[in-house]
Amino acid sequence: MQTITKIMTILVLTIGLGSSYAQDSTSAAQSFKIQVLEKQKEQIKAEERDQLKFAVEAINKRLENGEISAEEAERLKNLAAEKHAANIENRIAIVDNKIALLKRNAEEEVGEDDYDGFTIRIGKDDGDDKYIHIGPGDNKPRRYDRRTTSDLVFAIGFNNALIDGQDLDDSPYKLAGSGFVELGWAWKTRLLENSNAIRLKYGFSLMWNKLDIKDNQYFVRDGDNVILEEFPIDLKKAKFRTTNLVFPVHFEFGPSRKIERDTYYRYSTRDQFKIGLGGYAGFNLGTLQKLKYRSEGRNVKDKIKGGYNTTEFVYGLSGYIAFDDIALYVKYDLSPIFKNQDIEQNNISVGLRFDVD
Question: With a threshold of 0.90, does the pTM exceed it?
Fold first, then answer.
């Protein structure tokens, strides 16, 4: 809270000082705006040339696919050239008018100009599946066909362990207290040229798997064996956590909606069902056991890192059934939690997965 207060105070002071300085330096500010607008004229020419280039590429693509004749392609190219030439003329005229306005009012503050700069957009549009966009404005021409997209992955849910010769009902770990969290980044690539029915989804994730140990037990190491033993006094909590860096790969199946525009097309999976099947492999980054108990009238918290003979190379199977960006997610570690054990234990997790693309 104190940090937020300090930041807000600095922000208010900065804005106040900036406003005061602007009032005392109107002429300098106007000169700077004129310089920016002069540069903007060159930027306009470059933008329109790029947009014309992309339009011509789109027309050539349609010609190659046999959608239009050579005569029609030539006609469309001429129309595109005329359109962007007129755009350059009109947009530069607007900038020239702004410059003239600033010069006439060199000693006065005039209305703020609109500049193409940094934008923040929340919500999807027809041409883009991204829900959150933070970055430059949208003046850059769109690529005609974008086969690969990326998104943030977040998953959370229940975790437990399957133990050889033992039912899940007899698990030494609490069902409600044991859980997992996954945070990562994924890319999705369309595998077919003219269909989005099959996609390859791949990336990297940090996975935290937690086991909440019950019956007043905790993990101890006996040589290479890691076993559960009863704690000598009453435990308030006993939790065991592994942290893994993994690289998931899934084949994703499901319908899409094709969006076609004059200069680009996209496949959208918004409001569609999807199924993903695959797995993951990676490395264990660390282990931690937390013990909470009361001893000699005071609360004690022990954190024991490492030394539990956990499997270093982890791998498993995973899958999800999704609608839009929300999925029911299941993953199972084929690699045991502890290596070289007489009785193997394997993590199994069920939860919700959010792909914020």
Answer: no
